[in-house]
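Hi all, long-time lurker, first post. I run a small reading group and we've been trying to get comfortable going from sequence to structure in the token notation. Rather than ask abstract questions, I figured I'd post a concrete chain and ask someone more experienced to write out its structure so we can walk through it together at our next meeting. Sequence below, copied exactly:
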Amino acid sequence: MIKKILIANRGEIACRVIKTAKKLGIATVAVYSDADRNALHVEMADEAVPIGPAPSSQSYIVIDKILDAIRRTGADAVHPGYGFLSENAAFAEALEREGVAFIGPPVKAIEAMGDKITSKKIAAEAGVSTVPGHMGLIEDADEAVRIAGAIGYPVMIKASAGGGGKGMRIAWNDAEAREGFQSSKNEAKASFGDDRIFIEKFVTQPRHIEIQVLGDMHGTTLFLGERECSIQRRNQKVIEEAPSPFLDAATRKAMGEQAVALARAVGYHSAGTVEFIVDGARNFYFLEMNTRLQVEHPVTELVTGIDLVEQMIRVAAGETLSFRQEDVKLDGWAIESRLYAEDPYRNFLPSIGRLTRYRPPAEGTSDDGITVRNDTGVFEGGEISMYYDPMVAKLCTHAPDRLSAIDAMANALDDFEVEGIGHNLPFLSAVMRHDRFRAGNLTTAFIAEEFPDGFHGVTPDAAEARLIAAVAALVQHRVQTRATHISGTIGNHRRVLTGAWVVGFDDGSLALTLEPAGAGATVTFADGTMTAIESDWLPGMTHARFAVEGAAAGIKVALAGSAIRLRWRGIDVTATVREPRVAALATLMPKKLPPDTSRMLLCPMPGVVTSILVGVGDTVEAGQALATVEAMKMENILRAERKGAVKRIAVAAGASLAVDELILEFA
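-- Answer (accepted) --
Happy to help. Here is the structure in token form:
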């Protein structure tokens, strides 16, 4: 058996591998860049080796530095995780020369499947259904436009060595094909050191469904069901589930058999994923094969009971798989939500900073068969860096059926506390409550179609507004009770703490009365509706469960002066609780207007300016590209919101900018 594993990766996947290695009694070695000196995976490992500066191009993807760490520690195996060197054939080959086991597939399989052009040719020869496209390399933007026109719009422009949504663009016309080609090349070069690009037909209204395969070195290759990964933004998966709510048994079997046929065609062993695009008639087309562990592997583990990392280690050690295809059963339903350091209220732009609060929900399995699992690589007080992928954690739930798993996820998201950075928890909560998602009516265009103007939070309906008003009233009651005890005026508390109140929100208000009762209160609204509410919340608590008419709700509470911020199920409300006369006077107060920045282009996220596309004096049109900013391995094109003339350019290419720092100004 393998004795010591070096994990050539960072973050949550490094922590994930370390957990299984410890379970198997195998020693572990972490590697870390300067930015990750205090990272969680460094703390968890038995040994840790520094490998260079923060940029991955100078640390995590430098093969010689990983080999040096192997020699220094005597590791006899390497797990690459995903990203970085995980699908780098030269790295696997170097390990082979060193006599170190690669916990992954053989070099030839990586070479064949790592290049998307080659992989599609092999897939077609193996009898796998493929998407029409141009499988040759494309030299320049003019050629890209010609090819796209011949295939027929829309087309997908993709990096041959890509993955994780990097180097991918959808083009609907010649202009987008030209621009997308260059952006894809830039991202591919920065992320993979390989800027080769190809183009294929984009299947409209597609579902992204992938098959997990697993093989040993002795000829056994299996498929472990499928994962639905259709909830995506900018080709980056956001929510995954297993199984798919769309596939029937016959389609699942056909897709699984084609995935196995492809794996066998390249002599594959270890864990891998064959990705398909599936249309509304359940026709499926090969997309790519990822010759590594996938980010979303936990949902497969939860429905099959198989530890994929353990199987990868055992296969690399030469063991045979201890089960066969007929032994693989799908039990229940699992959902994975990716927690990203990105601000959904600012068009999901990356966010960096220190995690001033990081409290995941409790993990484990409850008596009703609900399992909560959180794969993470961060901790409270740690820093989210601009140098790496923005994923903070992968929150998973497993339940006997799909709706139960979704409801469990909604509860777990309510209980997840993250402060200090922008994050997508509110958006994930909004998806869990969305009728279309709950019905399983998914495509990769779900986010674009359901949130066409971006995410602006969830507006509470009438019942939710009453719940929030009742919670705000109880919180205010507890705050004032604490204040009266401290001030020694408890004898006057009934006049202050009960009677008529008005709970105000940004776009309305609700009048109510509150009477303390036991562990909570009875709230009566102006129309006579009565609501019973209970909670153990006390001033200082940032999260608590509130039982409203017997239904439990996990709500985040923050006191901000005389206001109360409440967050729940994607709703983010700042409420005020006032006596009626005070509430009436408050409506007369003028509202402070935000500063006018309409004549400025501000940097929307922390990042590096890679190019300025206009000059002083240029007249620009609405939608015209002005500058590009790279952040967290993604290139972002900043466009003009309206027609105007460039008056001043404040920065040059190569500048590192903070959020809202000025890039250029219009006349």
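A couple of things your group might point at:
The first strand starts at residue 4 and ends at 7.
The chain has 18 helices and 40 strands.
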